[in-house]
Amino acid sequence: MVIKKPSDVNLPYSEVTPKSGYLDRRKFITGLGLAGAAALSGYEAFKMAQPDEVAHASTKLTFGKSAYSDTQAPTSFKDITHYNNYYEFGTDKDEPAEYAGTLKTRPWTVAIEGEVKKPQSIDVDSLMKLAPLEERIYRHRCVEGWSMVIPWIGFPLSALINRAQPTSKAKYVQFITLFDRQQMPHAGNVLDWPYSEGLRMDEAMHPLTILVFGLYGELLPNQNGAPVRIHVPWKYGFKSAKSIVKVRFVEQQPPTTWNAMASNEYGFYSNVNPEVDHPRWSQATERVIGAGLFSARKPTQMFNGYGKLVAGMYSGMDLRKYY
After folding, report:
1. What is the reported pTM?
2. Whole-angstrom Cα distance, residue 323 to residue 317?
3. Residue 177: partners with Cβ closer than 8 Å, 6 or more residues away
4. Domains located in the chain, CATH noted
5. Per-residue model confidence as pLDDT tens digits over 234-284
6. Residue 140's beta-bridge partner residues?
């Protein structure tokens, strides 16, 4: 697979661009009247503009810019952290924020297993040092029909994959999340646990696929998948596994939780596709969280708007069959 560098692609505003681009477009920065405000990180500028929404106890992270960031202004910290799907802490959108405080994110290790030359267990704080952290402002599209723009902090998943040194048999990567009934009061309900997700190897190696350790410049809140999750911006949100404890390299397509539960509703690939409806609702439009209760829905973009960077991986595939 040939990966085009950002400089090789002529992208419109809806495609990925440097972080400085979105900072220049954010009107509130200008309103601050502060010299050099445009050079601030998304978190720093947002904190000054809306201090009440970021009044939370966390640890700041050191990170750089990314050429893969979107230009849209991020969704508010409050909405990102109080409108969540994390069934281990409840099925209502506000329940993860209420109940996820029971999750203990230190100490935490991630096991690397399967078809690799270097199986290992790595502490999450050591894992964070494998590659420079970047702010990646990505669109997030949920299969239920809502969307956000989230300023993740992380680095490409490929850094971990390269460390593990997969063998030639490794065709897929599987992610297993924590299953602990004491820490997760709703685990054991609704779905089969632990939660499992997977990607084809080329998807996992794609530079848009990231390991996430933080958002808005600080460590991930528990309800957003602390201490480590993945994010795959061209796929529906359930593909981005939270609170990962195992990364397995396997030869056969791994079972995934939602696909095993209802294969007619949740395909293995789960690429955002406005032309393939969920059996119970349309995927043609989406509701933007934070835009107001009565705001108009907007059209869903193929591959969530990242098609110029990812469509080549699916050339020749029937995306209605491999949904």
Report:
1. 0.84
2. 10
3. 88, 194, 195, 196, 197, 241, 242, 243, 244, 245
4. 11-314 (3.90.420.10)
5. 999 999 999 999 999 999 999 999 999 999 999 999 999 999 999 999 999
6. 148
